[in-house]
Design a protein that fits this description.
alpha+beta, five-stranded mixed sheet, 10 helices, 62% helix, 10% strand
Length: 367
């Protein structure tokens, strides 16, 4: 549990105030020199963070000439908390001890009397206390920094572990996609090609050609997807050349659905917006093929002030829909993409039995 420290200027002001109280308690009007030295020592504490050694030297005359020692003890504590030189701290503690002994009424050192040893021990202990306290604060500060470094190292290690797991999963997914999906799509392309060559019905041949073309395009995109999934780390790789509004007409033409495209969008829209529009139309037409065979579709794309609106509406189906697997993951993905760009996706049936999908996006989205 961390404790909040008072602001540095407030703490310095408090120390100077305590030192001035110490001067007031020991000052005598008949000894202006001692009072002046004590005042210099008190105000020298304002320099203790930037110049701790010089501050301690400024406080020593007050220790020698007067009984005001608070400023010197505060300066000694600051020096101990900021320096790592143990020899310097010992020298400063010894200097304070002898300076305080010199200020005694009888400055002579008579080691033949027990009182001298008692005074020496007391003064040395007084000097050692701020040194030990300053070193303790320094150790605590170093420990806190070390704990922060350890925490960062652990976070980095967790990220590396997560990336390793992700890379392993991506490799597994790439292998499964290559072994299963690519094989089945390749088989579809081969069968469609054979049907295109062997059939005598022009409509069947055209449908087979469309299936084969879409299968080849899917294989190409799948190949790029697998290469990206197998790339662990490094620079991001585009799956394929990303679609834009210029590709919408080709998408509509190759959809196998009678579709009317109406758009007035400029080509200057941000790429993320263009990709979102393309993927929305693509998913909507795919759903029409799956769930509304024989239906026609209308794609309307409008640019209203700072908003882009896309509406894909299809008529009721004219044939029974095939039983195809699906879990609405495509619509979920469209909603997530739109939310990332600050937009929305809504969909639902129309009154005539058809279906409508609406996309609303800010025209300046760049995520």
């Amino acid at each position: 549990m961390s404790t909040r420290r008072p602001p540095a200027p407030l703490l310095d002001a408090a120390l100077v105030g305590a030192a001035l109280l110490d001067v007031w308690a020991h000052a005598e009007a008949s000894e202006p020199l001692r009072t002046a030295c004590a005042l210099v020592a008190a105000f020298a504490l304002l320099l203790r963070r930037r110049l701790p050694r010089l501050t301690f030297l400024f406080t020593l005359p007050a220790v020698i000439l007067s009984d005001s020692v608070f400023a010197a003890l505060a300066a000694l504590y600051t020096l101990a908390s900021l320096t790592r030189g143990r020899t310097l701290l010992v020298v400063c503690a010894v200097a304070f001890t002898f300076s305080d002994l010199i200020s005694l009424p009888s400055p002579g050192f008579d080691f033949s009397t027990p009182a001298t040893f008692i005074a020496l021990g007391y003064t040395a202990a007084t000097a050692a206390a701020p040194v030990f306290l300053g070193q303790l604060v320094q150790a605590r500060r170093d420990l806190s920094l070390r704990l922060v470094e350890i925490s960062r190292a652990r976070d980095h290690e967790r990220q590396l572990t997560a990336q390793t797991v992700l890379a392993r999963e991506r490799t597994t997914l790439a292998r499964e996609m290559h072994d299963v999906v690519a094989h089945q799509v390749s088989l579809i392309a081969v069968r469609a090609g054979a049907l295109q060559v062997g059939s005598r019905d022009a409509e069947v041949r055209q449908a087979a050609a469309t299936i084969r073309k879409l299968s080849v395009q899917t294989l190409e995109e799948l190949r790029h997807m697998v290469s990206v999934l197998r790339t662990a780390g490094g620079d991001p790789v585009e799956l394929v050349p990303q679609p834009s509004l210029a590709d919408l007409q080709r998408l509509v033409d190759n959809s196998g659905i009678e579709t009317e495209l109406r758009t007035d969008l400029p080509d200057s829209l941000p790429p993320p917006v263009q990709r979102a529009i393309y993927r929305t139309v693509q998913e909507a037409l795919t759903n029409v093929r799956k769930h509304a065979p024989g239906a026609t579709a209308v794609v309307r794309i409008r640019h209203e002030q700072a908003t882009v609106r896309v509406t894909v509406t299809n008529s009721p189906p004219t044939r029974s829909a095939l039983s195809l697997p699906g879990a609405n993951h495509g619509l979920v993905g469209l909603r997530q993409r739109a939310e990332l760009l600050g937009g929305t996706v809504t969909c639902g049936p129309t009154t005539d039995g058809g279906y409508r999908l609406n996309l609303t996006l800010p025209a300046t989205a760049t995520r």
